[in-house]
């Protein structure tokens, strides 16, 4: 394992090339535009005001439809940097809410989406891959795909919660 000093030297070398800044700026602009599109498409949802940019591990924003808010649940649209993909998550407003809903879903054996292994250490309850190996060359198509996948995920979750 590299020392922090060695890692910082490599980081500086990569920054001097300029590609990292360009890619990161482009990702933040794409995510901001996607967040704006969510606000416009789902005016009844509470969409987070800012992006969570993380530690280059994930970047996300949340969307809380009115039918999730009383349950303490939210939808997160997430870009996972290392996995290089977009996912849609069902998350709780805190770990206890996550654990409670995780238990309900686990006991019902609902297998439509990936259930996290431990809701007390994860940032989500359910996860769905919305775009694997995204093509940023066609941002409109990528945005459309993420919107479609998120809409389908939200409908499935809504139907599941209504039945349980």
Question: Helices, strands, pairings?
Answer:
Elements: H1 4-17, H2 19-41, E1 46-47, E2 58-64, E3 73-80, E4 85-92, H3 95-108, E5 114-115, E6 126-132, H4 139-163
Antiparallel strand pairs: 1-2, 2-3, 3-4, 4-6, 5-6
Query: How many beta-strand segments?
Result: 6
Strand content range: 15-25%
- Overall average pLDDT: 96
Strand order of the largest sheet: 1-2-3-4-6-5
Helix-strand pattern, N to C?
A: HHEEEEHEEH
Shape: globular
How can the largest sheet be summarized? 6 strands, antiparallel
Count of discrete alpha- or pi-helical segments spanning 4 or more residues = 4
Query: Which bin fits the share of residues in helices?
Result: 40-55%
Spans where pLDDT lies below 50 across 5 or more residues: none
Multimeric state:
single chain
Taking Cα atoms only, what radius of gyration do you get, to the nearest Å?
Answer: 17 Å
CA-CA gap between termini: 47 Å
What do you see in this structure?
By secondary structure, the protein is an alpha+beta fold. The protein is 46% helix and 21% strand. It is built from four helices and six strands. A six-stranded antiparallel β-sheet has the order 1-2-3-4-6-5. Strand 2 and strand 3 (73-80) form a beta hairpin. The radius of gyration is 17 Å and the shape is globular. The protein starts with a helix and ends with a helix. The mean pLDDT is 96.
What attributes characterize this protein structure?
about 160 residues, alpha+beta, six-stranded antiparallel β-sheet, 4 helices
